[in-house]
Specification:
alpha/beta, about 35% helix, nine-stranded mixed β-sheet, 2 domains
């Protein structure tokens, strides 16, 4: 009997598997447990004309700022403490994303469920009477083939499947085969992203032995089966600057610095990008550590003064 395959990869190896024009779903939720190391890998690449599907945060903002997105399908793009992601706001105001599809959050989830079940659509009530259908007139309604208790057949929104070429997700722990567990409060629909995609690449804080996935957490925390995963990348702090509870929380000081640069002048952004985004992932993590050391030194100097 053959042993399960070792699927460990590097960030650059994952990015090399991607192609221009792909539809890429990015897991996580706003500023929570985003696969940011993989997103930064895409930033460093020549990839373009991507369709991005995301409950968006800085992942969408950074890719929009870099001109990587041809089409964006989203329910929101927020940093929580910064309500509207500033790079996304800039892209919307300047019209640099050619095609935008904004869905109700329930419709977004239902679209992933339809894709996960390999269905062309799933019906639901969310969206009826809203401007979602006004702004996306190509989304159709259907009449139920079954009459309700009142004898009337109900009209429902036919939410189209959000079929993905690739899903990118980040979880707390994984084994080398692709089984993965989350340790925080919420799975964030990462399993739906994986099931909706032809291929799923998983970044993780730590690769452990398969038995280690349930040593300190219940088996119910196992979110992804190796059958859904094409590659595993060990990326400590790889969700930075978003949360990866309980390993670490959102880096609020750094997020504020990012938001200030993103909403500032072109010179402000160029300086931020040159310091933090010009190198590889190791260089990024080192630059963030140095930035925090400088920040703490300034704060201590101010206290002594």
């Amino acid at each position: 009997m053959r042993a399960p395959r070792d699927k460990r990869m590097t960030v650059d190896e994952v990015v090399a598997e991607l192609e221009d024009g792909m539809t890429i779903g990015i897991g996580g939720w706003g500023p929570r447990r985003k696969p940011m190391a993989l997103v930064r890998g895409i930033l460093r690449s020549d990839l373009r004309d991507l369709t991005i599907v995301s409950w968006g945060g800085a992942d969408v903002g950074l890719l929009a700022r870099a001109g990587k997105i041809r089409k964006l399908v989203f329910a929101f793009v927020s940093l929580d403490s910064v309500p509207l992601e500033p790079s996304f706001q800039r892209a919307r105001q300047q019209g640099t994303i050619p095609e935008v599809v904004e869905l109700d959050e329930g419709m977004f989830q239902t679209g992933l469920r339809a894709a996960a079940q390999r269905l062309p659509f799933l019906p639901m009530r969310a969206g009826l009477g809203s401007d979602v259908l006004v702004n996306q007139p190509w989304i159709r309604t259907v009449t139920s083939p079954y009459a309700g208790p009142d004898g009337v057949a109900e009209e429902l929104v036919a939410v189209p499947a959000l079929d993905l070429d690739v899903a990118l997700v980040h979880l707390n722990r994984a084994d080398q085969h692709g089984n993965a567990a989350y340790l925080g409060p919420d799975p964030y629909f990462d399993d739906l992203f994986a099931m909706a995609a032809d291929r799923c690449y998983l970044s993780t804080e730590q690769v452990v032995d398969t038995a280690g996935l349930t040593v300190d957490s219940p088996v119910q925390r196992l979110l992804l089966s190796r059958m859904l995963v094409s590659g595993v990348v060990e990326t400590p702090n790889g969700a930075h600057f978003t949360t990866c509870t309980p390993d670490y929380e959102r880096d609020e000081p750094f997020q504020r610095a990012y938001a200030a640069a993103a909403s500032g002048s072109d010179e402000d952004w160029d300086a931020f990008s040159a310091r933090f985004l010009a190198g590889d992932e190791e260089a990024y993590q080192a630059a963030v550590r140095t930035w925090h050391e400088e920040r703490r030194s300034r704060e201590q100097s101010g206290e002594r003064a």
